[in-house]
Amino acid sequence: MKVWHExxxxxxxxxxxxxxxxxxxxxxxxxxxxxxxxxIGFVNDKQCKDSFQKGDPKKMLKTLLELLHTYLCGPxxxxxMGWTWLFxxxxxxxxxMVWTHxxxxxxxxxxxxxxxxxxxxxxxxxxxxxxxxxxxxxFNAC
Length: 142
Fold this sequence. Notes:
Elements: H1 2-7, H2 13-21, H3 40-45, H4 57-62, E1 67-73, E2 86-92, E3 98-103, H5 109-124, E4 130-132
Parallel strand pairs: 1-4
Antiparallel strand pairs: 1-2, 2-3
């Protein structure tokens, strides 16, 4: 039972018993009276984690477009369904929200950013204050 407990992502003991009662473990030798030993992996995997710092929503709204991170990825070996080879991401530093734009050429990066900027600034009534990039030359106009 220990092996199946680990294979099913540290499934709880009472859930195993339900699966056995419903005959979903057909060819496995698992009895209802079996008990699981203490599992440190279970404790670690089921522990709640705060992935992001909790902040004041009013403060986050004030700093919505304060800092954006951008990255241009590609060209990929395979195209997307829209025949694009590249994609560009814009990530808001405070909210961790990500927007993705698909591009056919690197030359479209600057136009994509300008479109994103116009959309965000008109919908949020705020201006983009700063943007971080890896200095890969995405925004160099040719």
